[in-house]
Amino acid sequence: MAWINEISEQDATGELREVYDELLKSRGKLANILQVHSLNPGALKTHIDLYMHLMFAKSGLSRKEREAIGVVVSANNQCAYCVNHHYEPLTRYEKDQQVLSTIRNADKLDTLDDRLAGMLQHAAKLTTDPHQVSAADVQKLRDLGLADSDILDITLVTAYFNFINRIALGLGVEYSEEEVQGYDS
Q1: Cα separation, 99 vs 109, whole angstroms
Q2: Contact, 112 vs 120, CB < 8 A?
Q3: Could you tell me the residue ranges of all domains in the chain?
Q4: Which residues, other chains included, contact 117 with Cβ-Cβ below 8 Å and sequence gap of 6+?
Q5: pLDDT tens digits, 150-185
Q6: Residues 6 or more apart whose Cβ sits within 8 Å of residue 98
Q7: Average pLDDT for residues 40-60, to the nearest whole number?
Q8: 1.20.1290.10, 1.10.1040.10, 2.60.40.3140, 1.10.10.10: which CATH number matches 63-170?
Q9: Confidence band for 28, pLDDT divided at 50, 70 and 90
Q10: What pTM, to 2 d.p., does this model score?
Q11: CA separation for the pair 74, 64 (Å, rounded)
């Protein structure tokens, strides 16, 4: 599953067993990207808490928008694991195949509705050219009606996916169609 040793569900004990049990109870199964943290259960728990807050807590960003940011960031980083993992839930919120294709390819984002296009273009720039992001870029988001709290959430979700993409890519975390699908929301 990855290039480093991992502790399987069957072999987990102590703190790791507790974390795995909670994941299995809440999500129905254990994602490979989480199992790769098994040698450091504290980091795994902190990672899950951050993910759950950024993706599910109350926010001015919809679940669709947060998943779309995840897919665009991951596509820009060429992280197939995360593109596939977050494209699947995105399809629950977006039914237009052209929009889905645009997001999945992180291409022609300007063809999307203004709010989504602005968010995704900002996330892409923050991913590929973070040193080029300026106050003018933040103002463009405000001009689209986004509050500063929304802009913070865009930045946090973008940063999270850059973080997790590097874990997946840096440790060779693999996915299969079976592993990508069937999580409880």
Answers
A1: 9
A2: yes
A3: 14-57, 63-170
A4: 109, 110, 111
A5: 999 999 999 999 999 999 999 999 988 887 776 665
A6: none
A7: 96
A8: 1.20.1290.10
A9: confident
A10: 0.95
A11: 15
CA 88 to CA 3: how far, in whole Å?
A: 25
Instruction: For residue 5, give the H/E element and its range.
Output: none
Among 83, 90, 81, smallest CA distance to 36 is for: 81
Give the integer Cα–Cα distance in Å for 72 and 54.
Answer: 16
**Separation CA 124–CA 109 (nearest Å):** 10
* pLDDT number for residue 92: 94
What residue type is 69 in one-letter code?
Answer: I
Read off the amino acid at residue 154: I
Per-residue pLDDT tens for 147-158? 999 999 999 999
Structure tokens of 58?
Answer: 């109350």
Burial of 82 (0-12, 13-18, 19+ CB in 10 A): buried
One-letter identity of residue 26 = S
CA distance 161 to 57: 16
